[in-house]
Every structure is written in C-alpha cells, then in structure tokens.
Amino acid sequence: MNLPATPRASTTLALFCKVVDNYGDIGICWRLARQLWREHGVHVTLWVDDLASFRRICPQVDVAAGEQDVEGVRVRHWVDQEGSFAADEVADIVIEFFAVDIPPGYVAAMAGRRPRPVWFNLEGLSAEDWVEGCHRLPSMHPRLKLTKHFFFPGFTDKTGGLLHEAGLDEARLAFQADRAGIARFLAPFGVSEAEMDSLKVSLFCYPHAPVAEQLAAWADGGRPVTCLVPEGVAREAVQDFLGGVPAVAGAFATRGALTLRVLPFVPQPDYDRLLWACDLNFVRGEDSFVRAQWAGRPFVWHIYPQDEDLHHKKLRAFLGRYAAGLDELATFSLRWNGACEIGSWPQAWQDLQASLPRIANRAEEWRREVLAHGDLTTKLLEFARELGSTQQNPV
C-alpha cells in the first residue's frame, strides 16, 4: 500500500477502543481521531464500546446510535466480536488501542484486502527505558499473512511522542495571559473574584487517593485554596467535606482556608482550559496526565493501578525524567500513589507548596523538551507511509 506523502481525504483509518479507565481510553482515542481528520484529512471510523462514557467528554454523542457522525469522525458502537466484513470495508490503517482484540471477522477481511492495511497496536504511555526498544517492532499474525507493528507514545525521540494539536500552545498562552478571560471561564462554576486570588487546584484522581488528608491539609493551611473537582471524583471524601451534602455539580463548601467546588464533567476543550486556569493540577491515568504537561503548570499524577504494584515502577521512571532536582514533588507524588509512607501529610503539602515556583519553571522546560520530539499523530502517519512504501502484499 502506498499512502500519499500528505494524507488525502481518501485515506481511511479504523480505530478500535474499549473503555477500561472510564475516560482515559476514549479521551485519548477521541483526541487522536479528531486530530487525524482536522489536521491530516484522514477519514476515521472510531469503534467504541462505551458510548455513555464517551458522551461525558463529548456531549454530541448519541448513546443510542449504532453509527453516527461526530465532528467529522464516523463513530460506531462496538457491541461485540461478531460479524463478517468485506475486504473493501477495511481501512487503509487499522489501530487497536492498547492491545484490544479486533473482531475476528474484521481481521480476516484485513488479510483478504489488497493492498493489505497498515496495522498498529497503539500502546500505553510509559517513561520506562524498555519502551524505546519495543517501539515500531513488528509482530506476525500466527495464521494470516498480516503484520502488526507496536507504536509506543513516549517522551524521547526514540518513541512516538505525545498527542499535541496544532495551535494548542498559542491558544493556551493567550488564555493564560487573560486574567479576565480566566475569570469568565471559571465564573459558571461558582468561582468568585476573591477565589481567583487563591491557589486554584483541579482535582482528578482515582478513589484510593488520600483525598481526605489533602483536603484537611488545605483547610488547615495558611494559604487560601480553591479546589475544583469533577462530579463523581473522590465522592466519599468530597461528600464528607461538604458535610454530607450530595457531591453533585454545583455543590460547594468552605472550611478554614479551603473552598471546594464540585464541577460538572466538561467537554475536552473545556477540561484543557480548566488545567490552564489552575495553579496546580492533580491528574490521573494517561489522557489528563498528558494534557497537564501541555498546560505548563505544576501537576501531580495519580497513575492507573496495576497488579503487584507495577505502576509504582512506571511512576518512578517518569519522576526520574521529570522531577530530577525536585525532591518535594517526587516525594509527594510517591506518597499520593501509595508508593511510600505518607508520614506527616500537612508537612508534605507545605514542602510541595513551597516548591511550586520551581516546579512551574520545570513544567515549561519539560513541555518544550518533549514537544521537540514531534507529535504522536504526525509520527504515526509518517511510520504508516514508511510501512506502506515497503510492505509486500503477496496474492
């Protein structure tokens, strides 16, 4: 298959996504699908099994539709592994996100297509050294004449980079330079003018994070803090802070130095603006983790938990790259993820708070370093063209 040097609107791509982490999986795939279409003219079919989760970050999604067009992307509800497909239904490029099993009927049609498609397994993000050696490796199908290639996002020039849309930096810088604009954006969430002068924190984490301890540290601290938390996140700890009031969008309470406000889930562009508007962001999984890096603000990552605490190794690998010389951030991050003893949580927060200016400088420096390696979407299409120009398709 010979993909054009610059993809035309006739280039097609099928992206298969199963939602495991509620919003992270579909968040990544939705950003990728939109960028492929908007910036590269690639016709994308996004297969996704959980339309309800999809709708929370993209309100245009119809959860009852088997097939629909959303912002130029064809969205198909992936119901099961059944079904047969004709060879001409197979896209030029096929991506399985995080090693999902594509329906066998679709794989069989891939083998019957001429020319055969370029097939990728788009893997999860990791800062571990072994990723560089596995990026772009081939894997032969055990029965069919098909080859799949692994594509790893990452933080170095020997990986696939990170998702980053054209114009993102310009939009962020303009937004962050406009204090009145930030106030207008936050006002519908209830943020007052007085709260604009506080330390503004967004909180997005998994249920097992030590949120109650952190809320207490903020409330008992000497600096005013406004914490903005999406509805459904850390529900028990948030509801306790609210005095038993249901932790639904619009709920808020002030205790000591802390004002906590519950936000509705917002579309992805508004979530990006929320990260841009805050002074410190707590993020989780992969999608919000990457967006926090593009925000150029200090952040704390809550990594997706894995058996045998393998995620702690992954966390330490990232901190080794990002937080060298920022011991307060590294220690706090490890504690936040249960990778070391908590000790005195108020002291851990005070240490982190004192280092926020240095972390902010590192955040901007890191953003420039990673972006210099290129963006994931462009690098993925470049690799697809490379494979398409050399791939043999025996009859």
Show the helix and strand layout.
Layout: E1 12-17, H1 24-40, E2 43-48, H2 51-57, E3 67-70, E4 73-77, E5 93-97, H3 104-112, E6 118-122, H4 130-134, E7 138-140, E8 147-151, H5 168-176, H6 179-186, H7 193-196, E9 199-203, H8 211-220, E10 225-230, H9 235-241, E11 252-255, E12 258-263, H10 268-277, E13 280-284, H11 287-295, E14 299-302, H12 310-322, H13 327-336, H14 345-354, H15 356-371, H16 376-390
Parallel strand pairs: 1-2, 1-5, 2-4, 5-6, 6-8, 9-10, 9-13, 10-12, 13-14
Antiparallel strand pairs: 3-4, 7-8, 11-12
Helix pairs in contact: 13-14
Overview of this protein structure:
Helix 3 (104-112) links the parallel strand 5 and strand 6. Helices cover 40% and strands 17% of the residues. The chain has 395 residues and is α/β, with parallel strands linked by helices. Residues 1-9 have low confidence and may be disordered. The protein contains 16 helices and 14 strands.
